[in-house]
Amino acid sequence: MEPLACDHKVFEHDRVHLRVDHGIFEVFRRNRIIGSYRAPLSWVKVRAEARKGGLTRLHFGNIEELDEPIYASTTSSKHGLVTVEIQTTDEPLYRAFFTELAQLSDRQIAS
User: Fold this and answer.
1) Is the pLDDT of residue 77 over 70?
2) At 100, phi and psi to the nearest 5?
3) Strand 55-62 with 8-13, pairing
4) Percent of the chain with pLDDT strictly greater than 70
5) Max alpha carbon distance in the chain (Å)?
6) The pTM is what?
7) Over the stretch 36-56, which tens digit does the pLDDT of each residue have?
8) Residue among 61, 70, 75, 64 nearest 94 (CA)
9) Is 95 strand, coil or helix?
10) Residue 18: band (very low, low, confident or very high) from pLDDT cuts 50, 70, 90
11) Contact present, 92 and 60 (Cβ < 8 Å)
């Protein structure tokens, strides 16, 4: 695996903190349940699930196939390792961050 063009990238919004440091992706969320997710960026997948009430759930997990996009929409009930609930109006901010990570790691964003 080649090193990323940028060793350190951070995205913070509301109660969510996402970061990449030396090719390792981490997600932290501020809530009553302590939980985080950490994996090599090349293994990360994020699936956005639209919910009622103006909410979107972001499910973080590991890819099963090497050509899977880093970010895509889902209607599947199969969930990831960590889930973060965000306002649907904030989803474009997250998508922009994952688009940037996809470019850094030579991966795709699903349309």
Assistant:
1) no
2) -65, -40
3) unpaired
4) 88
5) 42
6) 0.86
7) 899 999 999 999 999 999 999
8) 70
9) helix
10) very high
11) no
Place of tokens 């994020």: 46
Confidence grade of residue 111 (pLDDT, cut at 50, 70, 90): low
86: closest CA among 3, 8, 2, 30? 30
Q: Would the CA dihedral through 64, 68, 73, 76 be positive or negative?
A: negative
Q: What is the DSSP string of 9-41?
A: EEEEETTEEEEEETTEEEEEE-SSS--EEEEEG
Q: Which two tokens stand for residue 85?
A: 């609930």
- Here the contacts of 51-57 (C-beta below 8 Å, separation 24 or greater) are 51/85, 51/88, 54/87, 54/88, 54/89, 55/85, 55/86, 55/87, 55/88, 56/85, 56/86, 56/87, 56/88, 56/90, 56/91, 57/83, 57/84, 57/85, 57/86
Per the structure block, which two tokens stand in for 83? Answer: 């889930």
Q: How far is CA 2 from the centre of its chain?
A: 21
